[in-house]
Each structure stands twice: as structure tokens, then as C-alpha cells.
Amino acid sequence: LMQALWSLVKQKRIEQTRQEGEARYHRIVDNSPAGMHFYELKPDGSLVFTDANFAADRILGVDNHQFIGKTIEEAFPGLVSTEIPSQYRRIAAEGGTWQSDQVNYDDGKIHGAYVVTVSQITPGSVVAMFMDITGRKRAETELQAAYEQVASTEEELRSQYNELAHAQEELVKRQQQLDEITTTVPGVVYQ
């Protein structure tokens, strides 16, 4: 009886520890600043959307739960012609991590540039973590345009400076010539 009671207590502690670990995991996922999409690789090779965190809704501006049960291609048709679905499948099947520094996406409802990292959670399942870098990319483009404008302005200013320097040299020459004339021809008054 004591042994059965002790076994029950141990089992209860194990279950409590498991539940605490699960709750901690869900808090981390739900409070992450990165959007997270979860997928499961089915035996037929389809990759099915299974869940998303709150950040995914905020970043993409849609309720991602509408994609649950859909294949990655059905949920995100803009990815069909990219390497992304095959990379996600490869990671789900083989393990490891895949990253893209910039995935541009636009399907009318969702649009932007994202950095994406995909990792296997368990064999056959992956998490795709993403951050919106649209603002950063826009700022980089604006910064590049401003740099090009400054470079162009600098080139124009150098050209104008060179013209002014040449004009100043000519003026100095002409002044010297005038000075020579006035010293060699005394008594001539110039107006």
C-alpha cells in the first residue's frame, strides 16, 4: 500500500512538472516578439499549418488561426513559386535550421519583408519564426538614395569649385597683365 501511494505521489509530481514545463513553453511562445508558425509534415509530403502565436497575428495583421489545417501553399499562395515550402519540408524531415535574411511576400492581404528562421521541433514538425523588416528595408533604401544624392551633389560641387578655381587663376593672370600695362605706359588713365 505504501509503495502504491509513493508511486502515485511520484506520478503526480511528474505530471505537475510536465504541466509547469508546458505552461512555461506556452508563455515563451505567446510572449515572443517574433511571429511563429507551426507546421506538421504529413506522410503524403504535405506540410500542414497547425498553430501560430500572438506575434504572428500582430506582425502579419491577420488572424493566423484561419490557416490551421491548410497546407503551406494553401495558407500562403505567394510562397508556391519560392524555395520556402521545400526548405520547410526538408527541415521537418531531416532536422536542422534554415534561414533567409529577406523573404518578400505580398498576396494582397499580407505584404512585407521578413527575416525567417525555420527549425525542427520534433521529427516531422517545424516552427517558422519571423520578424518584419519592412521598415528597416525601407530605411535602407531611403538611406541609399540619400547617399547617392549626396555623392551626386558632392561631384557637382567639386566641378563648380574647379571651374571657380580656374576662373580665379584667369582673373589673377588678367590682373597681372593689367598691372604690367599700367606700369609700362605711364600717364594713361583707365576708366
What does this structure look like?
By secondary structure, the chain is α+β, with helices and mostly antiparallel strands. Helices cover 54% and strands 23% of the residues. The chain is built from five helices and five strands; from the N terminus they run αββαααβββα. The protein has helices at 2-31, 54-60, 72-75, 84-94, 134-184; strands at residues 35-41, 47-52, 97-106, 111-122, 125-132. The chain has a five-stranded antiparallel sheet with strand order 2-1-5-4-3, sandwiched between helices. Strand 4 (111-122) and strand 5 (125-132) form a beta hairpin. The protein is elongated, with a radius of gyration of 35 Å. The model has no long low-confidence stretch (mean pLDDT 87).
Helices and strands in order, then pairings?
Elements: H1 2-31, E1 35-41, E2 47-52, H2 54-60, H3 72-75, H4 84-94, E3 97-106, E4 111-122, E5 125-132, H5 134-184
Antiparallel strand pairs: 1-2, 1-5, 3-4, 4-5
Question: Quick one: biggest sheet?
Answer: 5 strands, antiparallel
Oligomeric description of these chains: single chain
Number of strands: 5
Whole-Å distance between the termini? Answer: 129 Å
Rg for CA atoms:
35 Å
N-to-C order of helices and strands: HEEHHHEEEH
